[in-house]
Design brief:
With about 400 residues, this protein is an alpha/beta fold.
């Protein structure tokens, strides 16, 4: 099969196995180039490990710190000649590289919200890893089947208390459009908190503790975003922001619990980057393409792997201490939020229209990053070559 990108709105429904592998290798090379991280974790659980920040965390832990890992994700495997999702190919390529480097790489493909996957993870950890000393919680999901009530919660990206009309980017046509983001109902707010809030993170820690596989002194981290005011009505002050407040409250509870064994829990606020999750959020693609323009010009741009290496090396491990903001969060968005960067992005935001967009925004960078998520546009890959999808990266 010749595999070409088939983009449908904010997703690409095809993925190239060897391109995904090249993307993983590129991130491994970046982690290795940053040098070894001392005093790092030995056994890591990454919930949401197949793409974006979770994959980069797993790579930083394995190739920066020499850790063994268990990754949890929800991806479609290759079946009956059908392509797998990018996260499957990423995980297969990561696992092969980690094992070649002498590290254990275990995987569970299934619903992280379920009791069953948590129980299977505990058994696998007991059998293969002993105890876990770092848990990265990096899920981004549109829905959650609640294991206690059986109810399906769907997260929505809406404003709270108002609707909001603003600029956005039509990524298919490269046009500045106007979008109106609706006002969420109380149920939609609750549903979004149920999916993207902190309850499931706490349940993961409960399961590990009850299973006797949580190491004394363990660290756990989850990721969030704050961003500039133009994104606040839909992000920080919207339904997703409410869920992230719940996540931060969970971090405080978990931190108090883990302190008794000298462990810690916290939220890291990461930079806005093109991932499968962020491309679905209105307003964010336009903001990211303007932000990339400014940060690249200033030599400040980082991708997921650079962010995660920085988190591991200068915050969590490497002899450093966590540097918290007033809200008890680590700020990996410090460069994004630098006043000079934000002043320039705010100016570009005002000036961005269909006449100026190509000049003001890093549209090429946005699209290249988006396609890279699915294994397209990588150097050294022959995209005209026939790929045997029955054999390419089928095993985890
Ligand atoms: P992503 O879409 O790249 O990754 C999501 C991961 O969750 C994948 O591994 C996917 O398989 C997994 N997943 C989803 N539903 C699952 C389920 N039911 N069971 C098991 N696994 C499941 O997303 P991302 O952008 O890397 O987001 C990860 C975290 O980082 C989120 O909390 C997000 O809010 C946060 N964050 C993202 C950005 C950004 O700009 N992308 C910025 C700051 C913080």
């Amino acid at each position: 099969m010749i595999i070409r990108p088939k983009v449908r709105g904010f997703v690409c429904v095809t993925a190239h196995p060897f391109g995904c592998a090249a993307h993983v290798k590129r991130q491994i090379a970046a982690a290795e180039a940053a040098g070894p991280i001392k005093d790092g974790p030995k056994s890591v659980l990454v919930v949401g490990s197949s793409t974006g920040y979770g994959l980069a965390s797993r790579i930083a832990a394995t190739f920066g710190c020499g850790a063994d890992s268990l990754g949890i994700f929800f991806e479609r495997p290759p079946e009956n000649g059908r392509l797998a999702t990018a996260g499957w190919y990423n995980s297969a390529a990561f696992s092969e590289a980690a094992r070649q480097a002498g590290r254990k790489a275990l995987n569970l493909n299934g619903d992280a919200f379920s009791d069953e996957i948590k129980a299977r993870a505990v058994e696998l950890i007991k059998a293969e890893l002993g105890k876990i000393d770092l848990i990265v919680y990096s899920l981004a999901s549109p829905r959650r089947n609640h294991p206690k009530t059986g109810q399906t919660h769907r997260s929505v990206l809406k404003c709270i208390g108002q609707s909001y009309t603003t600029k956005s980017l039509d990524t298919d046509k490269n046009l500045v459009t106007e979008v109106t983001i609706g006002d969420a109902t109380p149920t939609e707010i609750e549903d979004t908190i149920a999916v993207m809030g902190g309850e499931d993170w706490e349940w993961w820690i409960d399961a590990l503790e009850e299973g006797g596989v949580l190491a004394d002194g363990a660290t756990t981290v989850a990721y969030s975003y704050i961003g500039p005011e133009v994104t606040w009505p839909v992000y920080r002050h919207g339904t997703i922001g409410r869920a992230k407040e719940d996540l931060e409250a969970a971090a405080r509870r978990l931190d108090a619990r883990l302190k008794s064994t000298y462990g810690r829990a916290f939220v890291s606020i990461n930079k806005a980057l093109v991932t499968q999750a962020s491309s679905a959020i209105p307003v964010v693609p336009l903001y990211i393409s303007l932000l990339y323009k400014v940060m690249k010009a200033k030599g400040l741009h980082e991708g997921c792997i650079e962010q995660m290496v920085r988190l591991f090396k200068t915050q969590m491990y490497g002899g450093s201490a966590l540097d918290f903001d007033d809200g008890g969060r680590v700020r990996l968005d410090d460069l994004e939020m630098r006043p000079d960067v934000q002043a320039e992005v705010a100016d570009l935001w005002l000036r961005a229209n269909n006449d100026t967009l190509r000049e003001l925004a890093d549209l090429d960078g946005y699209h290249a990053d988006f396609l890279t998520l699915f294994g397209f546009g990588l150097d050294g890959i022959d995209y005209e070559a026939d790929v045997d999808v029955e054999s390419a990266l089928v095993d985890l």
